[in-house]
Design brief:
disordered N terminus; two-stranded antiparallel sheet
Length: 192
């Protein structure tokens, strides 16, 4: 039956992991296998795999794969506590009480600023800033930026993208509007 399911799923373009293989794939040391397992869990109920998911977090997986797993747990509103390590700090979280990255006040406020600054003036730079913004917020999981951090986050992203695309010209135009005491954020997506 399992071979038939694998064959049927291959024919239909399913590139995920069967429920019976989730544990093996998630706990493997191969990031590609872990990623396929995590993507498959988005289609299944994570409640059946809570111990396996904690064991996965204990492996200290790639930050992007870990963030994807956390996002899936949040989306499925899992009401169990998980322990993870982020940037050398141990923390616990309950996905039910977390917000998805695009729903946080910090993301929404930073997106509003980026759109105000670049949407009409430089749509390509705006789109790149938006992509970096969602990556940054995603990689912060299970933590999130709050509204007070939005200006620092948006300026940091604008500086990074502007330096890459136009030698900082667009960034300097907007930065001159703000005082020099606005701290910049260390962008995680630049180092992952």
């Amino acid at each position: 039956l399992e071979r038939q399911l694998h064959g049927l799923m291959s024919k239909q373009g399913f590139n995920g992991v069967l429920p019976s293989d989730i544990e093996t794939s998630l706990l493997s040391e191969d990031p590609q296998s872990q990623l396929l397992a995590v993507q498959s869990l988005a289609q299944y109920s994570c409640r059946s795999y809570l111990d396996v998911i904690q064991a996965f977090f204990d492996l200290r997986p790639d930050p992007k794969i870990q963030a994807l797993m956390i996002d899936i747990l949040i989306e499925q509103q899992i009401n169990e506590e998980f322990e993870i390590e982020v940037d050398g700090m141990n923390m616990s979280f309950i996905p039910l009480y977390q917000e998805r990255p695009h729903e946080t006040d910090g993301y929404i406020a930073a997106l509003t600023l980026i759109n105000e600054w670049f949407e009409n003036e430089n749509p390509a730079l705006c789109a790149m800033c938006q992509q970096i913004l969602i990556q940054e917020c995603f990689l912060m999981l299970p933590m999130a930026y709050d509204e007070l951090e939005a200006l620092s986050l948006a300026l940091s992203i604008a500086e990074h993208v502007s330096l890459s695309l136009d030698d900082g010209t667009s960034y300097r135009k907007i930065a001159s509007q703000y005082t020099d005491n606005v701290k910049r954020c260390v962008l995680k997506s630049c180092f992952v």
